[in-house]
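not sure who needs this but someone in the group chat was asking about Probable plastidic glucose transporter 1 from Gossypium hirsutum so here u go. i didnt clean anything up, its just raw.
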Amino acid sequence: MWVATVLHRPVVPVPLFFTSHLSPKVLLKPKTFRFGFLLPSLKLKASATKKQLQTQEPDNEDLHNQEKSDDQIFDLGWLPTFPHVLVASMSNFLFGYHIGVMNGPIVSIARELGFEGDPILEGLVVSIFIAGAFIGSLSCGSLVDKLGCRRTFQIDTIPLILGAIVSAQAHSLNEILLGRFLVGLGIGVNTVLVPIYISEVAPTKYRGSLGTLSHIGTCLGIIFSLCLGIPAEHDPHWWRTMFYIASMPGFLLALGMQFTVESPRWLCRVGDMKDAQTIIRNLWGDSEVDKAIEEFQSIISNDGTDVNSRWMQLLEEPHSRVAFIGGVLFVLQQFAGINGVLYFSSLIFQDVGIASGALASLFVGLTNFAGALCASYLMDTQGRRRLLIGSYLGMAVSMFLIVFAINYPLEEDFSHNLSILGTLMYIFTFAIGAGPVTGLIIPELSSSNTRGKIMSFSFSVHWVCNFLVGLLFLDLVEIFGVASVYAGFGSVSVLSAIFAYYFLVETKGRSLEEIEMSLNSNMRGGGR
């Protein structure tokens, strides 16, 4: 998930396909895919001679390898779940849109509403978003426990739509502050809700790849808002149009959620086994129903049937350990400097002749999007833990590369190009691991009963750290210089890689219930 936001100074379920029955006359069974795509049947001629059998064996092995390879290429097991995850990820598109929507128009907004030239008020208009997001994050866990994901998504569109409309119609400072606060409130709920929903709906095999859709949605939202904001350079009232447009995805999200499925895990917790079985059958396949329901019931028998978890449970093992990991991961992510790098990226691009801040931001957004696409492939092949460690090490190298370019006497153009390379490397490596993995692995490690509360706690920590970094960054640069601050970011990135190595367990290829059983001491050795 894209989690760098702002600085506080201006600057319908998919229907199942029928599969064909295999003919018992066929010597080798054809491979059947989840959606009924049938590979051509192959009949091999039997021979009585030993020599002919020997010569055919390598061909049979090659055929088996080829079928296995084709099976991987045409693996469409993720497709039934994709539309549901795609609708949920529209929330992240809104998140990204509201990140970028204030980049350029803040000057026009300040001029029209009468607070131009006041850096405190301009910063307040930007940062009030974070105050709303903090409150939204804290409230999300209780809402999900009581209402489930679908209804929470739909209710959450109310502040998102109202906030965008109020902002678009604002004629005073108080009105724009109210609009931005409401938008932040909705975004805070969504940043917690989307990873929970995806982790509980997605099949185990594809949970990581589908989980990166939220990060991709954020990237697309940022890019869209930056492109849409280009006319703002010439039209001082264009910002109102941009806010009106921001209300449209909220309506689409509320409507789309009417056709998506509820989390089968939440349905089991509230006793609706029939609907849970139907969803699992439609999304994961018939073969997964009995196993999944058995795992769900095993967890419920251990945790109890109470849907509403308590905040004090986060002080008990193993929940306290997961909450600690979640909080620290977001502290390290934010203090690894993503906000600061984004802020100075426009200045670095200016040094090489790219004077347009929108164009520089577009370069950064496209790099971020490219990294997110790579993460969607690597998440379920390399695993979360390895990806996170590699990501932070790459971010550290990028930071130290920029420090080298600043501190050492190099030819000016070469130094600028080196800084550009370091900046884009940093954004790319962040988007591969530190961005999407952090929001994905926390709900995977959390128990079914406390997942909402742990995610709420972790993201509230994220918003506090986001605010602090944005508040202190420019002062630190003024006191210590850019190179020293960037060296600090690189050091935190190394520390983050070490923390991930020692404290995280791999979740790739394991169901949420398997992970919980391994972490819950009450269930080791067969449960209690």
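also Confidence is low (pLDDT under 50) at residues 2-58, 522-528. if thats useful
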